[in-house]
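Exercise: predict the fold of this chain.
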Amino acid sequence: MAKYTRTIVGSVLKSKTAGTPDYIKIKTDVTLKAGTVLRLENKAQQLKNLDEAVEKGRLGEDIAEKIRANINKIPDFVRFEVVQLEKNEA
């Protein structure tokens, strides 16, 4: 079983109108508690982390290819994905 559960909470999106700020769009219902850490991961970071996981033997190449295909589908207007990592109880 995996040590952590990775949940994509939402995305930081580039504004469609010039002069307006970027915004966050929430994809998943989550309950946040004090002290919860949310990570911002861009496309390049996700690909780098995936390659490192394959090199270290944490992921098989067949699963990594499916994940890589999903990461490459992320459009350019998505600046970051907001990710919550939760440690699984063993």
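Check your answer against the key: Helices lie at 43-55, 61-72.
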